[in-house]
Amino acid sequence: MTGMKPDINTAKSKKLRDSSDTREVTLDIRDRYENLVQNIPQAVFEIDCEGNWLYLNHSWALLSGFAVSECIGAGYSDYIHPQDRSRCRETFTKMQQGDIENCTDAFRFLASDGSYLWTEIHAAAVHTGNNQIFSIVGTINNITDRVSEEELLQANHRTLTALINDLPGMVYRCRNNPDWTMEYVSGSSLQLTGYTPEDIVNNRRLSYASMIHADDRQNVWEEVQNAIREKRRFEKVYRIITIEGNEKYVWECGKGIFSGNNELLGLEGFIIDISRNRKIEHNLRSQALYDEITGLPTPLLFTKRIDSTIKRISTQGGEAAVFIIHLDRILKTLDQLDSESINQIAINISQRLQTLTHSIDCISHLENQRWALLIENLKSQCPITEMAQHIQDLFLKPVKFGKSNIYITTSIGVTTCCNIDKSAEALLQDASHAMNRAHALGGGRFELYDPTIHNHYIASI
Q1: Residue 241: closest CA among 264, 266, 210, 272
Q2: Cys staple from 140: which of 21, 43, 184, 271, with CB 3.0 to 4.6 Å?
Q3: Does the model's pTM come out above 0.85?
Q4: CA dist 400 to 295, 342, 363, Å?
């Protein structure tokens, strides 16, 4: 039986139809991809090895304002800002030479109105079948708005930095540790301390605490810790030793930085040199022995009274005591009042304290709402514990100003004047240490200065 021969013409016809269908499918896919590339918001480009545009989509015209037809065949570098051309050419040359496969960078491109746009370019090299570089393809995205905002922020940052560095004092941010480890220090540190910010930040050369006069370090620490506990700002005058070994009086104002969950993150503040002002103030105080508001002895006269008491005890015997009284949590309230109201409160407090003293005793109003009492002939009056209780009882009733009331508790530190080898300043410092301990233990109490406890505390920090 003879088999049927295939119809050659039919086979050829089927092959042609299949080939036509394949071309139609290929053309359809190509059209879809072309339509996709033309409509994405980023400009799509292809550059030949000579640096001429081979392809640009419609988004290029929307981006630059130039027609695609007038750009094809032209050199891409003609459309790049003169200051960016060498950098762009260097990058594209590395891709053409095979040193890098792709890049992401920012360049300024020329727009048809003569302006320049900041753009972000993502580019990659295209290889031929024998692994030769054929062209460079990529996308161009307009980032002018983003760059403008960044430039504005940078300009503002430069202005703020210049302003801070020109201030007549040192701006800082530090950790709350005994070294006061600085995380940021303004350039003014050089003028204030003689040390550059690089010397101080992260204790690279020395810690800020090591610059503080040895006699003032503990007081500074205790003052700041008290302010942190009360979540208020702190102000403190103390001495530092500069790089030349000179002593300077400085005034520091700062506050704790807290997170949303009330965690202490660190401290920030401002430190200025007040040595000249301190001398002027000292001269004025030497002339004014009594406070204008309360009529009480100034701290200078109070110190002289302690010196006189020490001399009397050394020759005649007896015992006296120095009380330092801190009004707990009142500084936040005073920050919100005018000077007249603050003066009324000071007068009210001084009148209360005077009800406990005799003519031979002495009262003085110190800084940061602290008051000092010198009680003479202590044994003939009452024991220390009884006197401290009397002081606390004075503030069971609120302090009035206008129609408002302030409820106050007291942290009291006490030291005796029986040690004639100590100076008035040392006794005041001892009483202050005891007061700070009372405050650290929660306030509303008194503490008698104990050198053993004090030395243990110093060793712990």
Answers
A1: 210
A2: 43
A3: no
A4: 20, 11, 21
